[in-house]
Amino acid sequence: MSMWSSTADTLVAYKSEGSACKYADKELGGLQAPTAQTPYIRSKNYCAVNRGMFGGGEICGACFRLTYHGDHEQHLGRPGSDVIQVVDSGSWATFDCHMTAFHQITGERTAIFPISYERVACDAPGSPVAAVLHKDYYFSKLVFNNLRYPVKSAELDVSGTKYPLKLVGGWWYVWTGNVKGRVSFSIAEDDGSHVELDGCFGGWENRKAGSACSGSQKLLLQASPMATEISNLTNASNHSQTPEASFFVYP
Prior knowledge:
- The chain is mainly β.
- It has 2 domains: 2-120, RlpA-like domain (Barwin-like endoglucanases); 129-227, Immunoglobulin-like (Sandwich).
- The protein is built from 5 helices and 17 strands.
- The strands form 3 sheets. The chain has a 7-stranded mixed β-sheet with strand order 1-5-2-4-3-6-17. A 5-stranded antiparallel β-sheet has the order 11-12-8-7-15, with no helix packed on it.
- Strand 13 and strand 14 form a beta hairpin.
């Protein structure tokens, strides 16, 4: 694990277009974006991951418990643990964390630390959020956050016509053309849970960049915690797959 940055607006300023997961993209309002209001982003308990772990963006929004066991070869820091949310890619270490999380886990402000990590459910108070990143006549880009687990699939419904969304490197897009009507989203999380957001944006024709919807949430299915599959998120990493959800990482 490495330290990413200590600045408050890292998610907005690190890249001109914001982080790969787009939660605090400038088009959404930066740190005031509706998708940047999770407990982890607000408290700066977030990290980027390496490209192998990030994959095609399927890991965006996932939460992990990172633990330092005090086993640094130079005896730096002290043992610690914290839950973080994945918000970006491009790290050369497995996790590259904001200073707040890094210090909580290690007691230090720099250096590289060996850690273990475990996938956990995110704390998601309130309702899931769908936000419009970009729209034009033909297609729209959307971002989802404040879910317990990352979005595995999503479907848009406009007045009864359904449109599947496609994941592109952390954000989602849908091609609809110039349609109008009542909007709902059906979201499948990667633990098997399904939620639905209804009555969004005051109609599809009224959406614009920065528009957000938590709508009226309906929990369609709550998966058992034991049903969560970790392997899909770790196959692309540089570590051997094991039956357990906990791995040792160096760095």
